[in-house]
Amino acid sequence: MVLDKLGDQLKATLRKITGATFVDEKLINELVKDIQRALLQADVNVQLVFSVTKGIKDRSLNDRPPKGLTMREHVVNIVYEELVKFLGGSQESPVPTAGSRAPRGEKSIIETDRKPLRIMLVGLFGNGKTTTCGKLAKYYKKRGHRVAMVSTDTWRPAAADQLEQLGKQVEVQVFTDKTQKDPTKIFRKFEKELDTFDVVIIDTAGRDALNDELVTELDAINSAVKADERLLVMNADVGQAAQKQAQTFHDIAKVTGVIITKLDGTAKGGGALTACAVTGAPVKFIGVGEKIDDFEEFRPQGFVGRLLGMGDLESLLEKANEAFDAEDAEAMGKRVLSGEFNLVDLYEQMQAMRKMGPLSKVMGMLPGMGQMQLPKEALEGQEQKLQQWKYIMDSMTKDELSHPEETLSPARIERIASGSGQDQTDVRALIKQYKQSKKMVKMFKGMQSEKDMQKLLAKAQRGGMGKKIKGRMKF
């Protein structure tokens, strides 16, 4: 996960509160010092650290818990709220989700009257601007929008070629003219054709530093593009220096937001995130890995939730929607409610899970799971097991997948193990997992509504079924 060390330290700090018998001033002071230490180690500016921890301390000592909350829960909630506010709080989001509304209090800029939505990426050399164009294009495309990319970078010789390669990878059309040296003329050449798309992403040239030449070029291309969003792309390694860079671009180039790349694997990410939050140019997207799909909207609420082990259901549901085809999901739902389930269904579920990303990231989005302190080695082992099961099911016949109880004899198990390169014990473990999953599916048989499912879950909780299920989870 992004900023693993910071998240681990913050979760350890909160465990002091949740495990305490009494919450007094001494404990609050310890909490504040621990949070200060964690934020400073994540390269957050000293003044900002003292500002956010002062808010946490003052509220924890002076505010009374709302009705229904214990003092421990109240303090944890204060830490969450102050860190969310610290990272920019709720903000307008440029992320359109096909067929959905923006969260309450927020508005997606895709809902403007004007189409196409024009997004111009700006930034200095070496920050991953062109790669981010491809990631952003894939992000919008997955949400059902017709996307085009335009290369106006006439400074870096390979920029147009790189964007074309990314276009092929994400299956998005790229417009460029490698013979033209004027960025504005490149855009105007294709402007009419670009108007037929929903989202147009413009890649611009960078420099080693923000100088007058770059400012003049950006002003010219922006006048031609009339961009709805001008997003500054910055590498997380810049740390606290992000504030000065973001502020300068914001003042001169009129950027409307920031995309922070390479946020995985750097301790300075905390400095970059918090520095941008105070400039008036909020972080809108983050790059969390090298793969084209390692890119997400920056939601302070969900991000802080993951850091504190509280989960991020909104991002989890978004990933699930991307992983499951709508028609397939509906068909699967009908099968579950009818009590039907076979290895084909289990296979499809496993495939969808793998599309959602590494198991450790998915677990971090589940409320409460981030606090379970599951060893990384255990999660990696579970991912390896899923891969083994995929090999095993790939070695089965259609009849074996559809009717496992009737067909999987000892002789066939031996054949499947040999064909998949796995042990017979692995095949039997898969069969055992399938039978457990089928038992769970049978519980939903005959349900007609969400209320029916809620009643079942409530009954299961009263009967301790949740503990039994948890006991079967082998990580």
Task: Provide tags for this entry.
single chain, 475 residues, alpha/beta, Four Helix Bundle (Hemerythrin (Met), subunit A), Rossmann fold, 434 Repressor (Amino-terminal Domain), eight-stranded mixed sheet, 22 helices, 8 strands, 56% helix, flat, disordered C terminus
Question: Could you characterize the architecture of this molecule?
Answer:
The protein is an alpha/beta fold and 475 residues long. It folds into 3 domains: 4-86, Four Helix Bundle (Hemerythrin (Met), subunit A), CATH 1.20.120; 109-310, 3-Layer(aba) Sandwich (Rossmann fold), CATH 3.40.50.300; 318-472, 434 Repressor (Amino-terminal Domain) (Orthogonal Bundle). Helix content is 56%, strand content 8%. The protein has 22 helices and 8 strands. The protein has helices spanning 4-18, 25-41, 46-62, 71-86, 129-141, 159-170, 183-194, 212-225, 242-252, 269-277, 300-307, 313-323, 326-337, 343-355, 359-365, 376-394, 398-402, 404-407, 410-420, 424-443, 450-462, 465-472; strands at 117-122, 147-151, 173-175, 199-203, 229-235, 257-261, 283-287, 295-297. The chain has an 8-stranded mixed beta sheet, sandwiched between helices. β7 and β8 form a beta hairpin. The model is unreliable at 91-113, 365-372 and 460-475 (pLDDT under 50).
